[in-house]
Amino acid sequence: MGNSESTCSPQEDDCKEAETKLMECALAHLTPKVVEIGTKTLEEGYKAAFDADDDKYEEYMKGGPCKESYMAYVESSDKDSHDKDITMMECLEAHSDYYHKFLDFYNGGPEQVMKEFESINPFRDPIRGHEFLGDCCKQQYSDFMNCFLKNI
Fold it and tell me: Is residue 5 part of a domain?
């Protein structure tokens, strides 16, 4: 009972290892893409909401009932900004009639990022996976697909 033999076949173990290596490579490759998509989406949302004008944004945020919590957040040091962020967001939500423009931008961002990511998701089908991962994970993808096809 002391041995640690696998209960899976050697082929299943090889496939699991190939899948793990592919996922590690893909995650390393996808992270910059997700950051790129997130940045692009947030920039587009910011531009749409505030014409990419920092002064207009600042004036808008200070012009409403959450001026104090906004200023506390802006002026806080990194170590306590999370608490200030929560306080500010609670205030913005409570005054959504005024802050709807910011909240639409803020709340819509993650949803838009997911839509963008789904449009390039490499794991929706094998052909797209190969095209997306390209040379980056070519060997890992090949090993995984060979195992996958052997088990069909």
Answer: no
Classify residue 4: in a domain, yes or no.
Answer: no
Digit-coded pLDDT (tens) for 2-25:
444 444 455 567 788 888 888 888
How many domains does the chain fold into?
1
Positive or negative CA dihedral for 47, 112, 62, 64? Answer: positive
Residue 5: its pLDDT value, please?
46
52: left (phi over 0), alpha (psi -120 to 50) or beta: left
* 85-116 as b/e: b if 16+ CB within 10 A: eebbbebbeeeeeebeebbebbeebeebbeeb
Q: Is residue 57 part of a domain?
A: yes
CA distance 90 to 84: 10
Q: Which residue do the tokens 């052909």 mark?
A: 127
Bigger pLDDT: 121 vs 98: 98
- For the chain, the C-alpha Rg in angstroms (whole number) is 23
* Whether the predicted pLDDT of 114 surpasses 80: no
